[in-house]
Each structure stands twice: as C-alpha cells, then as structure tokens.
Amino acid sequence: MKTLDQQIATAESKLALLRSKKKATDTRVKIIVGAVVVKAALESPDAAAKLAGLLRDRVTRDLDVKDIQQLLASLDKKAVRNG
C-alpha cells in the first residue's frame, strides 16, 4: 500500500500530465483557428483589410510584429488589389 505522500505525488503527477495535455490541446485549437482565419482573409479583400487592421492594433510586441510582417504584406496586397 502506498503512503499518503506517495499517493499525493502520484496524483500531482497525473494532474501535471492533464494540464500539459490541456495546454497542448488549447495550442492546437489556436493554430487551427488561426490558419482558417488567415486563409479566409487571403480570399476576401474585406476580410484581409479587417484582419490586417486587427493585427496592427493588437500585436504590439516587437518580435511578434516582426514575425507577422510577411502576412501583413500579403493581407495588404489582397485588400488593395481587389478592394
């Protein structure tokens, strides 16, 4: 029979694993939703303009802004070309 401390350690280990799985699932959902939104925006001038504006308003960290520059250029091109 396990001691109470061993049972607690086992339960904490299971909890940590469940939290890790939840975080991985949450991240996957964000990736899927983001991919769908970007694809839809690149197919619609109005959506492209809206997403570009939203990203410019909400993405403020320098590294993140740098990482989305290519996407912003594509969105701007779609919004202008067909807008």
Automatic annotation (TrEMBL):
Superkingdom: Bacteria
Name of the protein in question: Mobilization protein
Organism encoding this protein: Paracoccus gahaiensis
Lineage per the UniProt record: Bacteria, Pseudomonadati, Pseudomonadota, Alphaproteobacteria, Rhodobacterales
